[in-house]
Amino acid sequence: MQPFGLADAWGADRSELLRAFIQAERQGALYHTWEVMCPNCRVATTRATSLDGVPERFHCDGCGIAYDTDLERWVELRYSVHARLRAARDEVYCIGGPANTPHIWAQHYLLSGTARVFSLALPDEAFRVRALRLNHTCPLEPETAATGEATFAYRPDGWFQMRQVFRPGPVTVRLRNEAPHVVVAVLEQVRPDPRAITAAQVMREPEFRAVARLEDRSDAAAGSGPTATSGSG
Question: Per-residue pLDDT for 216 more than 90?
Fold first, then answer.
């Protein structure tokens, strides 16, 4: 669970709901973990019960790439129901589903030699086009003087374009696969998840210091939560 995400969905104050989560953990109803998110696909690759258990480097099996851990952006605080309260299973039914990847605005499967054209309304913020698994990206950035069209051609060595621009509002995107293999292309936001509470925030902001105190307490008690694990979700 993301406290800020739930607060936004419920129309509640973010800080007040976070304090409620911290109090619930003190009472044994919840426990927190640190999710190390892949900066490419934004799927949790590693889970730890304390920041001391977060690895300095990790590998994303889905993207096939290793990364250095970035506490500022990609280590996220999340909560789960404690087994002492009720049985709960942490399952991911579809890693690439819209609920798990809200930053992806469009996705297209391109056979070799085919093209796709689609239209959507884009806000005034940075996007990029990425080839899944191949991990080639091309920035798509807003400019008021730009047109409402953007074209991307994928070649054997990656995207032909170095950078594309768009005028915020209705945009027509053209994708073309000139490579001899299938390409799955996504159009996605660049900014981090606004619902996330990062490790850097916890270390920097006074309102989050209670989380660190809870970690100190749980480290002294064995079996207070799950151990660090690695996986795809």
Answer: no
Chain-centroid distance of CA 115 in Å reads 28
pLDDT of 230 > 70? The answer is: no
pLDDT at 212: 61
The sign one gets for the Cα dihedral 212, 213, 217, 218 is negative
Cα separation values, 44 from 78, 83, 92, Å: 11, 21, 11
Question: For the chain, which residues make up each domain, given as ranges?
Answer: 3-97+192-230, 104-189
pTM greater than 0.85 (yes/no): no
Nearest to 151 by CA among 131, 127, 118, 175: 175
